[in-house]
Design brief:
Keywords: Membrane, Transmembrane, Transmembrane helix. It holds the Pfam family DUF4307. The chain crosses the membrane at residues 44-65. By secondary structure, the protein is of the alpha+beta class. It has helices at 25-36, 42-68, and strands at 72-79, 86-95, 101-108, 114-122, 129-137, 144-152. It has a domain at 72-152: Sandwich (Immunoglobulin-like). The protein has two helices and six strands; from the N terminus they run ααββββββ. A hairpin with a 6-residue loop joins strand 1 (72-79) and strand 2 (86-95).
Length: 154
């Protein structure tokens, strides 16, 4: 087996295994950039990543402060199967002490059509965290409750 290595013996600028190319580094860099494209500067990538990190942190902080500033937060805690013409549900409420709350609860059927509605009134009290039971009256085949929201009572 014979291996051939190109060698330009009559060209002083070439080395074994390489074609002739000018030794000027600027010309060589231009040639490589023309052939393969310019390489992105790492500083630009680092700056973009840093800006994205700062923006993400600012948005997270802003959303956290918005959530902390809300005087009322409420979620559905549990519900049971319908009993006759009512759908039992439990609402969990986090509120500022002494604040009266009104919650809008609805019952929906399997097509998500509203088949019952209840305006749940929670009187003011010293508790910050409270769970309130409610019976949503049904006018159809309700299968699940939905909490549309809570606000400070008028």
């Amino acid at each position: 087996m014979r291996i051939m290595v190109p060698y330009a013996s009559d060209n002083a600028d070439s080395t074994p295994g390489h074609t002739a190319m000018a030794h000027n580094s600027a010309e060589q860099a231009d040639h490589l950039a023309e052939r393969y494209g310019r390489r992105r500067r790492p500083r630009v990538v680092v700056a973009v990543l840093a800006a994205a990190f700062v923006a993400f942190g600012a948005v997270t902080l802003w959303l956290g402060l918005q959530q902390a500033d809300q005087p009322i937060r409420a979620d559905l805690y549990a519900w049971e199967d319908p009993r006759g013409a009512t759908l039992p549900a439990t609402v969990e409420i986090h509120r500022d002490p002494g604040l009266a709350v009104t919650c809008d609860l609805v019952a929906v059927d399997d097509r998500m059509i509203v088949v019952g509605q209840l305006e749940l009134e929670v009187p003011a009290g010293p508790e910050e965290h409270i769970r309130v039971d409610a019976d949503i009256p049904l006018e159809g085949n309700g299968i699940a409750p939905r909490l549309n929201g809570c606000h400070q009572a008028d």
